[in-house]
Amino acid sequence: MVATPTAGTEAVGDPNDPMTPHDSGIYLYTKDLTGNPKLTILEPAAYQGSKTGGVFTSALTYGIKKAKMKAVIPGPHASIRTGDSQPFFYFYFEDKATGLGKSPWTTGGGVSSPNQFVLINVESKEKNRETIIAEYGAFGASSGTNEKSMIAFKSEKIRSGLYKVVPITNMKPGEYCFMVSSGGMSASTAGAAGAVQIFDFGITNSQ
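and the corresponding structure tokens:
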């Protein structure tokens, strides 16, 4: 899948060159069979909503065992995949001065940095993918992405509106996504109400 210019904009230069102006979004950086660089945009995944599990067990244990709320993404696998266990990503944020295209962020214009996203490992099911976004029981409740599923990453500002993002450690084959909440708040603290922007991808076994 190759990114195409948004209507009303013109492509300038090589679309697979990270330094070339691009429409706003998250782009996966890979190399083709000949070693040439390739940028593929991560399309926003449909957010199917949330579901709650473990309520009955929580009631039986008087809330000692927590009930969990999970965000649900339709489909067991992301369509965009890579065999790289430590993939690079480029985040392009709208910069009208340089003519970058329309923004895919539908969060009220509050998204301007990779630090407002979390990278998480999602669990693949038969028909969908899930990740815990809240837990509650007898001793209180907590909202936000489950820390065990979060993948730490580092970001480097290349220029205004452009960041390079790389996971700090190698990632196992599986399903992943970048998530940002409504209003630009990090999904790690926003919880279910904010889990509205999801950009998914998968890592395959390169062997």
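(Above: one complete record from the training split.) The helical segments are 55-60, 187-190.
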